[in-house]
């Protein structure tokens, strides 16, 4: 981590309320969040090691958008909208694959080169005087940072990924993130959509106050040292060191036993689990044995999928492989626990007895996440919900009033 960047201190006196409950169950607000937050901010879509050879491709579906990421014959990785320019068919179907020299649309057979240019349309004589150069795949805004592939579907308020995550540049360099390889046995994972609003999962993941009570394995592993740090720009770091005790639980005890000998890592990362949060909905996490990213992908107002990919280190030993599996086992148990907490929290906001959150200093990350949402969508500052029909108008009025007074 950049030593010159200081975490945002928790104020002595701060508003401990969270977002009002109505913001988790309004369709009009969810539509605003999709258009003004989720689609305009960076999303992690994979790692360059997921597509090592020319012709390898990944897809990434998000809300109503779909992306195709492909490595060209020149070795470059590019991202496009996964839509044929003829009728909009899905050019690549599935999570990942390989094509030899071109992508062929399964609908009518239009052929695209690996750089996205249109090689040719089937029955070209039926299209009149068509300029092929105007019908290449539409590119997406993409950045590769320490091997991780970031996309956004619309221009937004975030700076470049390199600038946004610069405070963590030294850590990712130390972790040799660009050298990661796909986890051979575990790989891409998803959790069936949960009956929650996407913010409910973020609320659970944005604080460690619940670790001691809700996560026995994490508490056994590192709960004594866990801390959250919030930084400007909508990024955060959670870090905890393990190994000060052998562990009571089987998975923890054996993980501590096998996870040793990372002399190439700096002291603060050698025996740590670290989580790097990226507003609004993504996390990249490292253990000494490997890494993963995960994100909350809304399917609708109250349906949210958790999804991510796991990575390993090249040339891992048997002990490292065992530790990586045990880390996955601990993390899987933790995820199941968080899913249930998210469901309970989300459903509580429909109750007439729900007043508001009253946040601990250890939950300051929840508040800062909410504040960033409020800044982008001013109507979220209102305690009382506007009518669904008027919500967009009220939001624009509040935005205009804020612009005039700022």
Automatic annotation (TrEMBL):
<keyword id="KW-0408">Iron</keyword>
<protein>
    <submittedName>
        <fullName>Aromatic ring-hydroxylating dioxygenase subunit alpha</fullName>
    </submittedName>
</protein>
<keyword id="KW-0560">Oxidoreductase</keyword>
<dbReference type="GO" id="GO:0051213">
    <property type="term" value="F:dioxygenase activity"/>
</dbReference>
<keyword id="KW-0223">Dioxygenase</keyword>
<dbReference type="InterPro" id="IPR036922">
    <property type="entry name" value="Rieske_2Fe-2S_sf"/>
</dbReference>
<keyword id="KW-0411">Iron-sulfur</keyword>
<feature type="domain" description="Rieske">
    <location>
        <begin position="42"/>
        <end position="151"/>
    </location>
</feature>
<keyword id="KW-0479">Metal-binding</keyword>
<dbReference type="InterPro" id="IPR015879">
    <property type="entry name" value="Ring_hydroxy_dOase_asu_C_dom"/>
</dbReference>
<dbReference type="InterPro" id="IPR017941">
    <property type="entry name" value="Rieske_2Fe-2S"/>
</dbReference>
<keyword id="KW-0001">2Fe-2S</keyword>
<dbReference type="Pfam" id="PF00355">
    <property type="entry name" value="Rieske"/>
</dbReference>
<dbReference type="InterPro" id="IPR001663">
    <property type="entry name" value="Rng_hydr_dOase-A"/>
</dbReference>
<dbReference type="Pfam" id="PF00848">
    <property type="entry name" value="Ring_hydroxyl_A"/>
</dbReference>
